[in-house]
């Protein structure tokens, strides 16, 4: 038989081993939990509450009929600009199967007095080849807008709003200017007083539920709170179309718009 001292030593040794095993188990569990949370956050699984409490709206915008033929503008007045460029390709950006680009799709009614954080990243308009890029820009009210002159000639940016402050600024080659619009407006025509062929549009919103279609005509409005909405599609030459839609939590709904070409 073991002496009392031996028994005490044995019990103490076993206790130490059990304590070490317990610490290892706890550390492993904590590590597993942290790893799981990280994966969930990256994948947008249960950690993304919005996906469970909101809906989404996706669709395409199309043009029925033939778009106007391309015309060309003469840029010879400024040797720094290209000699000529298409004037209608930005107005009617048409893809396969009649999909239509440069259409602003947005929630026009249904958000009531909801408020949303303004993005900290600026929206950017570039002047390249004596043209505005993009031709149609959408941004938030009070979001910073940067206008970058990549050309070797002076430009002038002159928005003509009806619900915002009008401003008119010269912009030397290689410089950047910054401005904001404080009120919602769809859409603000923009011109260049130096180069009369330079025109674009800026749509300003007090909420984040808007999109500008590319050549494939597609739009995607995500994280819409459940509710009844009026969705509007705006085109600079074709005007506006409206549709009403109901969005429920976790729902993904499809909605298409079809504009008719001039003379169709």
Give a written overview of the molecule.
This protein has a 5-stranded mixed β-sheet, with no helix packed on it. It has helices at residues 4-43, 50-53, and strands spanning 55-64, 72-74, 84-86, 104-109, 123-128, 131-133, 136-140, 145-149, 155-159, 169-171, 176-179, 185-191, 199-205, 210-212, 218-224, 227-235, 239-247, 252-254, 257-260. The longest helix has 40 residues, at 4-43. Mean pLDDT is 84; it is low at 18-49. The protein is globular. With 264 residues, it is of the alpha+beta class.
Briefly say what this structure is.
The protein contains two helices and 19 strands. With 264 residues, the protein is α+β, with helices and mostly antiparallel strands.
Index terms:
Immunoglobulin-like; 39% strand; 264 residues; 3 domains; four-stranded mixed β-sheet; single chain; five-stranded mixed β-sheet; alpha+beta
Rounded to an integer in angstroms, the radius of gyration calculated over CA atoms is 29 Å
Q: State the end-to-end CA separation.
A: 107 Å
Q: Which stretches are low in confidence, meaning pLDDT under 50 for 5 or more residues running?
A: 18-49
CATH superfamily (homologous) name of the largest domain: Carboxypeptidase-like, regulatory domain
Number of strands: 19
Query: Could you give the order of the helices and strands?
Result: HHEEEEEEEEEEEEEEEEEEE
Major beta sheet, specifics?
5 strands, mixed
The level 1 CATH classification of the largest domain is Mainly Beta
What structural class do you assign from the helix and strand content?
alpha+beta
Major sheet: arrangement of strands:
7-13-12-9-10
Query: What is the typical, i.e. mean, pLDDT?
Result: 84
Strand content: 35-45%
Number of helices: 2
Outline type: globular
Which fold does the CATH topology of the largest domain refer to?
A: Immunoglobulin-like
